[in-house]
Amino acid sequence: MALAEATVFAVIWAIVTAIAEIVFRRIKDHSMYYTISSQGHIALSAFNFLSSWLIPIFTFMAVMVIFALVRFRAPDNTPRPSPVQTLRNKWYILLWVGVSFALNIMFWLHPTAVDLETMFANWKQQQNQHPLIVNVTARQWEWIFSYPQYGITQAVNAQGLDELELPVGRPVEFFLRSKDPFHSYDIYADVIHSFWIPAFGIKEDVIPGETRTEFLVPDHVANYETSPLVRVQCAEVCGPGHPYMEAPLSIVTAKQFSQWIAHQKSLQAQGA
Amino acid sequence: MRDMAQAEPRNHLEPKVLRMAPVLRGFFWAAVGFATGNLLTLAVDPFRGHPWVTEPSAVVGWVGALMGWLLGVGGYEEIILPLFGFPSTWVEPQDWRRYFGLSTNHKVIGIQYLFSSSAIFLIAGLDAMAIRYELMQPSMHFFTYSGQYLTAVGVHGSLMMFGVGTVAMISGLGNYFVPLMIGAKRTVFSRLSGLGHWLLPAGALTLIASPLLGYWDTGWRGYEPLAMQDPGGMVFYYLGIFAMTLSTIFTSLNLATTIIFYRARGMTWARIPLFVWGILTVSLLNLIWQPEIEMTFVMALLSKLVPWNFFDAIGSVETYLSMFWLFGHPEVYIIVLPALALWNEMIPVMAQKNLFARDWAVIGLIFVMMLSGLVWAHHMFTNMRNSEMFPFAFFTEMISIPTGFSFMAAIGTLWKAKLRLTTPSLLILMSLFNFMIGGLTGVYLADPPVNLQVHDTFFVVAHFHYTIIGGMIFTWIAAMYYWLPKLSGRMYNETWGKILAVWIFIGFNGTFGQMFLLGLQGMNRWVPAYPPYLKSMNYEVSLFAFFLGVGFIGHAIHIIWAWRKGPLSSENPWHARTLEWMTSSPPPEENFAAELEVVRGFYRYDHDNPSAYFVKDKSEST
Amino acid sequence: MDNQEPSGVVEQLWGRRQIIWGGIGLGAIALISLFAKPDIVGLTRRLAGSPVSSGKINLYQFDYYFIPNYMTWRVGDRLEVTLQNQSHTHWHEWTIGRKLNLAFFQGFGSMNADAWAIDFWDGVDVTLSDPYKVDNFVPHEAHVTYVGPKAPYQIASGGDFSPTLQPGGSLKLTFTVPNKPGIWRFGCFVQEFIHYRDGMKGLIEILPA
């Protein structure tokens, strides 16, 4: 009798968990969200890893709540002492405290420690692979992209709006600065922005007076038509223009990229 | 009552008649104070521009208004006169009118706080409905300007955080029940506490009035350097929150001192109720962190008015962010600790079962309190240096361990219980479920690589609404039902209570559950306009949000109805054992008729003699 | 209780009605001041009409609105507009015209953009004076006379006739209202058109002579 309740609970929990894990794996195969960069894959696999470990904890609580509603309810609201009176159960406490320490330390080591190490090591490696350098200037409320290796100061699309274009498979180093190059009397009068490309799985705040870097390798040819997650989006509130601080992004083949660079150069020559 | 024939000499003791309600008198003197401060500033301001209210003049005017308000509600008679050696001339009317002026009775103050906090919840909730209505379409269709939308977001967040989250359970339920639960007849700093309540509506009204000075964009965090260049409404954000946090500090100072010094005989640390532990830990958090954020806001305000350039590219942007989150994360636990404590306060009563592992439940509260100051930088993974991610990820993971102890005790108590499935029980089970989702999604956010993707998206919005609404608001409503017979002597309707509980559970999970997916699909925060591919899910979220809003209003109506017209309840309908149930309902002015002596803990249901279990009348024992 | 009551106490003589009416009154004041100001201004203007500006006009720029945002001019009047930027942090321009240009934005479709299709100042004679902290000034098709040295005017090209002022800047524009009666709009398009989108705009009704 003593174990019967626990056994019933454990069996239900195991079944519900198994179903939830299977469902999650089906969802995961279609990807939780669209990711096309080296950095994004780290985040997505961490997300999936955490999900598969957190599902049993969630189902434990969900099953427990329903179990309590069904098995542990009093027949009516007349106050009478519960037949079972427990003050302590050393195995339960030991298990709870032990498992919660173990799980949290595990999560901290994997994925956190492992991924951070991988991430930083990747960044260092990409920095040494002669990455494509893109200077990203955030100002209220515009992203400005310049390619110093090609002498392009502000890349624009056919409508004259700023755009970002990247070759697939080549490491990129973004230099992120928040300032307003058009207002020479107060260049650093700008605010915090956050450089976010949802499909790249990373965002980095752009802080006035500081220069931040971000490394990644895009691994698919894509644009806004492929997935609306392929866009540059400001993620930190920066004033009334914040929702509109968005820019087109295309990841193209190396050949298309060099054509695009030539086009930008000619545009710039006409403008100057 | 007074013999008017006995003429007294004409001096300051002459009988006075107050023909104006103190709260209205407060408004009058606040208006006079504002006008005076504002005009004085304009008169001496050499750089005055066009408008009649400038940022500096609004600040000075606001100080004048606050003075006028506090003096007008009764601070002049009750506090200023005695401070200068005159006798206090303030006598609270012994009827409903005492709720409309300064009171020194902790139960009156508690109800004042509960009322103000509920009113703020209503306004912030209507604000949220406006936000959700706007987000039903990908382009702006309800608000005219995105500045208006962002102001609505900022006002919603600030009111909920500083006017509801830190207030409803701590200042409302705390003021009312903590003295009762520890067997005290009054609180230590009762006049300070009485004055403190009136800071809350002052602060909330300041925030609500902030759009009059211009739309501000920063959300509840007042991020620099955006705040520095935002229109004048920002000034009222700082001032409003200053008043509201000061109110919380007064409550915390008063309640912590009362818990330490005014406990009944025999109310040892090993016996004080869980909710009292919750209020004590949270009061310590408040006393540490609320002054910190007030100092930060004073600096930010000066930086804006002067300007000082403390927190822009000339100074240090990250310093503001750090100072904000240094308070900002403890704030989350300030909101949720009383809820964790209340689970384990109510479950043993509803189950009539021993509280499982009481010491672990208390240890959990204390360690959450201590760790809460070490996790703040996880709000800044996207803007801090890489080296800081690792240690803060560690502490963020670790804080879930003591939080888990509250779950452990709750589940241990539920296990094999015979739980009476009342409305409070149901809401607590829902709260356990919701808060578990809030906590587990926090594990994702603690992992920096995942955080860098979902930070500043609706994933985070969903996460913290799960902890705050799912954890705190659900438990607050549960506690209102649980203590309603004590507050009013009346009982709610069990059927309606349960229907409404299920109602808000569905509304809540439908609203915020989908927000996790919205965040993963690329919905960023603080936007009244968004790419059209996110529309259908936003539309659904809004429908659920309206459903949820109606549910909250339903609870409010139900509770107000029960409070006034509900069937009369017995003195101790739940057969609870804590001291607040050992007196009449509602309790008399002095709380207890007799001296109390506690002889046993409150969470033991395995004794068979409930009649003589833990209190004895001192007059009988001597 | 009676005999313990200290002398000189405040006796409260007020009732339920006062609280109810006081609350309703204060609530009404709050709602009106928060939500109904534009309606009240519009109603007043409908009932009382808008006075015709003449002589000196002060036009203030704030974040992100103009004061006044509604003016009535008459063809042939000589006006002296003192433009003042009251913002501490943002630069602002002043353009007048008709028909907004539209641009295509990836996530949001066609939205109002950088300028007017018709510039009010085309062919208008205007005298600029007292420049202080001018960010830049685009004369476009206007016939401009500059008082004093030209350097402080920061003359530039591109876009409509638009004086742009630094925070705290000011500039005086003197002109005779040209024979272009009807409704004209004015606005500030700086910083990626967001100032305009966030309400930094106004209307000028020009009456025939």
TrEMBL record, chain A:
GO biological process: ATP synthesis coupled electron transport
Lineage: Bacteria, Bacillati, Bacillota, Clostridia, Eubacteriales
SUPFAM superfamilies in the record: Cupredoxins (SSF49503)
PROSITE patterns noted in UniProt: COX2, COX2_CUA
Coiled coil: none
Origin superkingdom: Bacteria
Gene Ontology cellular component annotations, sorted alphabetically: membrane
Gene Ontology MF annotations: copper ion binding; cytochrome-c oxidase activity
InterPro entries: CcO_II (IPR045187), CcO_II-like_C (IPR002429), Copper_CuA (IPR001505), Cupredoxin (IPR008972), Cyt_c_oxidase_su2_TM_sf (IPR036257)
Transmembrane regions: 6-24, 53-70, 91-109
Similarity field: Belongs to the cytochrome c oxidase subunit 2 family.
Signal peptide: none
Topological type in the membrane: Multi-pass membrane protein
Known EC number: 7.1.1.9
Source species of the chain: Sulfobacillus benefaciens
Keyword vocabulary terms for this entry: Copper, Electron transport, Membrane, Metal-binding, Translocase, Transmembrane, Transmembrane helix, Transport
Residue ranges of every copy of the Cytochrome oxidase subunit II copper A binding domain listed in the record: 129-263
Protein name stated in the entry: cytochrome-c oxidase
Its job: Subunits I and II form the functional core of the enzyme complex. Electrons originating in cytochrome c are transferred via heme a and Cu(A) to the binuclear center formed by heme a3 and Cu(B).
TrEMBL record, chain C:
Transmembrane segments: 19-36
InterPro entries reported for this sequence: Cupredoxin
UniProt cross-references to SUPFAM superfamilies, sorted A to Z: Cupredoxins
Recorded superkingdom: Bacteria
Annotated keywords: Membrane, Transmembrane, Transmembrane helix
Protein's name according to its UniProt entry: Uncharacterized protein
Biological source species: Sulfobacillus benefaciens
